[in-house]
Design goal:
The chain is of the alpha/beta class and about 250 residues long. The chain has 2 domains: about 180 residues, Nucleotidyltransferase, domain 5 (2-Layer Sandwich), CATH 3.30.420; about 60 residues, no CATH class. It has 11 helices and 5 strands. A 5-stranded mixed β-sheet has the order 3-2-1-4-5, sandwiched between helices.
């Protein structure tokens, strides 16, 4: 096993309950002897019995049926073997990691640190128009990504595989500690996502509008507006970070 690796995690669920994971997928990204990070051959997926019926809405997304998971282990039985692999990891990662962190609790991960590739993409590639996992895939066309291994979308291993290619490129652009720092803060949105200033860069927004946006219900909007106000010399107390992200961009 590599001495330094990050394990990318992706979960599929039965419909939004607190303990309803029905599939976990993973893909490792490891640092080579040359110091460069690479996507390695440690990947896989396991079905999980969610202990409840899978909703039709979620079956229509991932196509995992009740019959498929009837004989599978429950979440707490299987999660530690994936989240705490032999040899350890320097961090876990996911795209919009707040979702996975709801289920991959510290007691299951051993207190592992998390990288959110969505938040890091906002920082490293702010000129891109959209930042979903699959949009990044086709906007960036990461080198070495085998198209068929990244399919079908909305299944745990293929999605983790795609995310791992974004993470590899991020780790080769910025230090691990920097990605962890960004991941611990709200998302720094490159543009205003809604309202009369939608699509504008924050430096194009009036001071009055910035102060209003700094009171928005969305923590990422508040953080982004605050960051611009601080850049202009108007310091505010930053809102505490939240692991849960609700806005898609």
């Amino acid at each position: 096993m590599p001495s330094e690796r990050v394990r990318v995690i992706d979960l599929e669920t039965a419909g939004g309950g607190p303990h309803d994971v029905c599939e976990i997928g993973w893909q490792d990204v490891a640092r080579g002897r040359d110091g460069r990070w690479r996507v390695d051959d440690q990947r896989g997926a396991l079905l999980v019995n969610p202990g409840r019926a899978i909703s039709a809405d979620t079956m229509a997304v991932h196509h995992i049926r009740d019959v498929d998971v009837a004989g599978a282990p429950f979440w707490k039985q299987i999660a530690p073997s994936v989240l705490r692999p032999e040899g350890g990891v320097v961090a876990l990662a996911a795209h919009r990691a707040g979702f996975e962190m709801r289920y991959c609790t510290p007691s299951l991960t051993g207190g592992a640190r998390w990288i959110c590739t969505w938040k890091c993409a906002l920082r490293l590639w702010p000129d891109l128009p959209r930042f979903s996992n699959q949009m990044l895939r086709y906007q960036r066309m990461p080198e070495g990504l085998i198209h068929e291994l990244g399919l079908p979308a909305h299944r745990a291993m293929p999605d983790a595989y795609v995310t791992a290619h974004h993470l590899r490129d991020m780790l080769n652009e910025a230090p691990l500690d920097q990605l962890l720092l960004w991941s611990g803060e709200p998302g720094l949105l490159p543009r205003v996502p809604s309202g009369q200033d939608r699509g504008k860069g924050w430096d194009q927004v009036s001071e009055v509008a910035l102060h209003a946006l700094a009171k928005d219900r969305d923590i990422d909007i508040r953080f982004s507006a605050d960051t611009e106000l601080r850049r202009r010399g108007e310091l505010r107390v930053a809102e505490p970070a939240s692991p849960i992200q609700t806005r898609l961009l």
